[in-house]
Amino acid sequence: MSLIGEGVDIGTAGPRSGAVQVGPVVGPSMASAGDYFALLKPRVMSLVVFTALVGMVAAPGHVHPVIGFTALLCIAVGAGAAGALNMWYDADIDAVMSRTAKRPIPQGNVLPGEALGFGLTLAVFSTVILGLLVSLLAAALLAFTIVFYVVVYTMWLKRWTAQNIVIGGAAGALPPVIGWAAVTGSIAVEPILMFLIIFFWTPPHFWALALTRSDDYARARVPMLPVVAGDAETRRQILLYALVMVPLGATPWFFGYASAVYGAIALTSGAVFAALAWRVRIDTAARPSLQLFAYSIFYLFLLFAVLLIEGAWNSLFARVIA
Question: Does one domain contain both 114 and 125?
Fold first, then answer.
């Protein structure tokens, strides 16, 4: 429990609202380790680490296991820092949405100032260590990702435009590029293709869930697409993005960076993605949207898992014949 005097004054989200306002504080919170771990958004962090690992394994050359582990740890910590800073600023929104009301700050388990200090400390630590021990370019990309997610997406886009998740999705799409840069110190076409896959995957993935949470977003005054443009337009946009995903998911194969096996899996799974999106377009019940949301997670994991396996195999083969 938090030792707070008059409690927390939660306002509604909107262009003029910022971080949650706190009344007189008697002392520091009694937050547990689990509360601070929750601030890191561990499920999001796991996806970040996984896609960054794929970028590292797919990159040409070899990185020492300790350096590789250090890079992944820094990327994970940087992602967690962005999550903590997002929860600090969005505490007013989180408090009025049923999906997020039990997060540590709205529950009073962690004070906003503590979350801010925690997030900033992790952000500085992760970028500095990554730059000193691994790669300056990777560190710069990680710093850009954190700033983009916190300042551009959280503080601006999320509260101002229905295109928030479209533009803001760039932050979540950068980890494979960071992983690649950690190994090579450069950027190439292959990690950019990975970036594009995640970037175009993010809107239909998130909007599928938003369709079932539109009342939550409306109550919090967050201009998500279903709230601003309506369900019908959101369903149309989901289908359009899904149709783009079918060929886009196969681009690593088209450009010669992945095998025909990957290409077949990408096209087949992409076709299922599009079919589920079509069902969402014609069926307004909640179940098709939730099914698409769940499948989209599997779809992205499948594509990157195949890229990871092929990258590891290619690396092993190159060492054998060297």
Answer: yes
